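Run log, item B.
One chain of 54 residues. Sequence copied directly from the ordering sheet:
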Amino acid sequence: MIVLAVLAYLALCFIVGMLGRDRRMGYIITVILCILLTPILMGLLLHLTEPRQT
């Protein structure tokens, strides 16, 4: 059961990372911060930040 919870947590981290790929931090940094903090907190931070200027 704990394995399923860890897999769900990591899946959320990767989903939030996909949302952050167009941000200044990029995909990898977003996923790492998501794992260290929480996917919910990183989702809120991504919502507050603007997309990368092209």
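Observations after the first pass:
- The chain has a mean pLDDT of 90.
- Residues 2-40 form one domain.
Flagged for discussion on Thursday.
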